[in-house]
Amino acid sequence: MTKARNIAKARADERVPRNPGSEQDASLSSTLIRGIEILQCFSSGDRALGNAEISRRLGLNRPTVSRLCKTLVHLGYLRRDAKGAFRLAPKLLALNYPVLSAMPWRHEVLGPMRELAELCAGNASVGVMSGDSFVHVQTAGSPPGWPHIPDIGQTGPLHRSALGWSLLSLLHGREFADKLAELRALHAEEFAAFADATAAAVERCRKQGFCVSYGDWRPNLVAAGAPLGRTEDGLCVAIACAVPRYRAVASYFETDLGPRLAEAADAIRLSGVFALPAPAD
């Protein structure tokens, strides 16, 4: 197996859904869980997957995978290509629209995001917490030669990224402890490796309004993040700016971009859409 195929395999393995404890809960539908896991096991690098690969990734027998995929094709969420492999179908995008339309504030933050992206000659993104990850819901800026351009719907880790740490800083008390326990259970080795960095970044967000990640998630990027707050319906929201590492200067992030990002977050909160939660007693 070539190096490229090894990398692709590793990325695919990272996409295998992990729901510890869910199989022990008799009130959950295992068929529905498996069907959704099939959709989740596709990564951005996968054009198509066959029964055998889906079976390997999920640890399911091939007849079960075949039956579930046939059902998903019937529903319009998968389609088959000329070789008989499965591809995600455009109908899945229709599921995104109601989610995004319930976040009208995405359009309100776009102006400040564009200003920040222009200021740092990088990109800006806003993300919300979702389980053990964050999900990008708005992005701005796409400089030429950019090593990674985030897109709406892309996910990233809470425990080793500026955006993720900013989101974690919005949790307090039992909610914060439970989230850390969830991350520890799902990502034991990574969580241990980044535990000190996570604790320091969360504390900095709470005290200074921002944090900085020097390639902790994507080695070729340096990013600053700031918590925006929680929406009326309970979503945790944060903003981040990133630039390629080869032209990132630590002092710029620490004394210029980071504080500016925190100020921008303060200004955005004046709209009343986001509120910083009070620390738990």
UniProtKB/TrEMBL annotation:
SUPFAM superfamilies: GAF domain-like, Winged helix' DNA-binding domain. SMART domains: HTH_ICLR. Residues 1-27 are annotated as: Disordered. GO terms for molecular function: DNA binding; DNA-binding transcription factor activity. It comes from the Bacteria. Residues 29-90 form the HTH iclR-type domain. Keywords: DNA-binding, Transcription, Transcription regulation. Signal peptide: none annotated. GO terms for biological process: negative regulation of DNA-templated transcription. The keyword Transcription regulation applies. Gene3D superfamilies: 3.30.450.40, Winged helix-like DNA-binding domain superfamily/Winged helix DNA-binding domain. This is Transcriptional regulator, IclR family. It comes from Tistlia consotensis USBA 355.
